[in-house]
Design goal:
- The protein is α+β, with helices and mostly antiparallel strands.
- The chain contains 13 helices and four strands.
- The protein has helices at 2-17, 25-28, 34-45, 55-69, 76-86, 88-107, 141-145, 147-213, 218-253, 281-288, 290-311, 356-421, 427-463; strands spanning 114-120, 132-140, 318-331, 334-347.
- The protein has a four-stranded antiparallel β-sheet with strand order 1-2-3-4.
- Helix 4 packs antiparallel against helix 5.
- The longest helix has 67 residues, at 147-213.
- Residues 1-20 form the signal peptide.
- InterPro entries: MdtP/NodT-like.
- Keywords: Signal.
Length: 487
């Protein structure tokens, strides 16, 4: 019985197994796909990223982050680097790449055959303890014939997951850079409002004393006091906004505990002397945008899925079943074992589901992916043009405030002080000039903030990471730490 058993049970799956291709090493290697992600991120934003899979790796990254931020005034570049090393959402995105690699590995591996063995007539001693043994092995034929197509789909999904992770990395870098700009600009506004409040306090105190002497009526006193009260509210609101902005930056960097004891500069860096035009920005965006490449891979995956659906349109499940039945019989006191081979083919008869619905779904899925790619290409071009226009316009506006409005308000303030010293003008006119000059400074600071935001958006429009894609980095001036003690 043994001699006839083994060839029948194991022969067929060995034949199918011979058709299986070797599993590509890229799917099975540690941190599969991460090296490709890192190689695309660094040239775009000039920062490194890391994927921590073990406790030791996490501890090493934590020490690096602590050294970069603890009680230090951080620049935009430092904030971005910390986020790329420490943001747990980004680590989850990298883990998803590993999941897609494992799926590709799974699809490239032959399906395990199913073996079933049954024993009949146990406990019948007159028949030699058993009457019959039945063994079957079931193997899906379509698993072998469609493995190449399924592996190709899984590989496209793996490559798409890598690009999505690159996109997520660039997006985080861009968000962190803009959050740093927001936080620094908020603290810069606080410093201007604090100075304005000091001037207003002096004016309010003077108005109160003049009112006591009768030199200023109640309306004049109330006017100065109301302005002082309004300014106090604006200063409190600005401080709250600065706290919120810094907390948003802290979240993106993934900091907690003692690592939150860091500072940002008191003011944004000065505007660059000039900004140049980006030549062929549409072509650069079409060539570099990661989200566009993700859409292309999505179309490729749908094309492969369409081919697999077409191949299995009529018969979607075909199984080959091979085995034997060994039956023991006793006749005239002699025992005889009869072994009978069995071969079965099992498949669904396409009476009702002829595969037309699945083909229709595959066709529409491909059409959907094609339209998504076309729309993405149109949007990429538009985002690139709009980002460049905003970048240059924001620079001109910021320079206008810096070079025209603020100097004029400074001149008015200085001339007012000279007139006050010569007893030509009164104190309240001088205070008004000071307040207006500080107001112009606030507007100039906000215009500078808009420029650096536009600078980040321009880089995102080329590489990705903005609202439509991913990426940060920087063409044009690079943000660095401003002066001051920081917050």
């Amino acid at each position: 019985m043994r001699v006839s058993k083994f060839p029948l049970v194991f022969g067929f799956p060995l034949i199918l197994g011979a058709c299986a291709a070797a599993v590509p090493g890229i799917y099975t290697e540690p941190k599969a796909g991460f090296a490709n992600i890192s190689s695309q991120v660094t040239p775009a934003i000039g920062k490194r990223t890391a994927f921590a899979e073990t406790q030791a790796e996490n501890e090493a990254l934590k020490k690096q982050v602590h050294a970069m931020v603890y009680r230090k005034t951080i620049s935009a570049d430092t904030a971005v680097q910390v986020a790329l090393l420490n943001n747990k959402g980004l680590q989850a995105s990298y883990a998803n790449v590993g999941l897609s690699a494992a799926e590709a590995w799974q699809q490239s591996t032959p399906e395990n055959p199913i073996v079933s063995i049954g024993i009949l007539g146990i406990g019948a001693p007159e028949l030699g303890a058993y009457r019959a043994i039945e063994g079957l092995i079931r193997s899906n034929v379509l698993d072998a014939t469609t493995r190449k197509q399924r592996t190709a789909i899984a590989d496209a999904n793996f490559r798409q997951a890598q690009l999505s992770a690159v996109n997520d990395t660039l997006a985080l870098a861009n968000q962190t850079r803009k959050a740093w700009v927001d936080a620094v600009a908020a603290f810069e506004a606080v410093s201007y409002l604090r100075r304005a409040k000091a001037t207003s306090d002096a004016g309010s105190e003077l108005a109160m004393r003049l009112g006591e002497t009768g030199a200023l009526n109640k309306a004049g006193q109330a006017r100065e006091q109301a302005f002082n009260a309004e300014l106090a509210g604006q200063l409190a609101q600005a401080r709250l906004s600065a706290t919120r902005s810094k907390e948003a930056l802290t979240r993106l960097m993934g900091l907690w505990g003692t690592e939150v004891d860091y500072y940002v500069p008191d003011a944004l860096p000065a505007l660059p002397r000039s900004v140049g035009r980006v030549t062929d920005i549409e072509a650069k965006a079409l060539r570099n945008r990661v989200d566009l490449r993700v859409a292309k891979l999505g179309l490729e995956a749908q094309a492969k899925a369409f081919g697999l659906t077409d191949q299995t349109r009529i018969i979607s499940d075909l199984e080959f079943i091979a085995g034997f039945e060994a039956e023991r019989e006793i006749e005239d006191g002699e025992t005889e074992t009869v072994t009978t081979p069995q071969v079965e083919v099992e498949f669904a008869i396409p009476i009702y589901d002829t595969g037309k619905a699945r083909m229709r779904k595959a066709e529409l899925s491909y059409l959907q992916a094609a339209n998504v790619l076309a729309e993405r290409a149109v949007n990429v071009r538009s985002e690139a043009r709009g980002a460049e226009a905003s970048y240059h316009a924001a620079y001109k506006i910021a320079r206008h405030y810096r070079d025209v409005l603020v100097p004029l308000r400074t001149t008015v303030e200085e001339e007012g002080l000279l007139s006050y010293n010569g007893m030509i003008t009164n104190t309240f006119e001088l205070l008004t000039d000071v307040r207006e000059k500080l107001g112009a400074s606030l507007e100039a600071a906000n215009a500078k903030r808009e420029f650096y935001m536009a600078q980040a958006d321009l880089t995102a429009a080329i590489y990705g990471g903005g609202e439509g894609g991913g990426g940060a980095g920087g063409e044009g001036a690079t943000l660095a730490a401003g002066g001051g003690a920081g917050h």
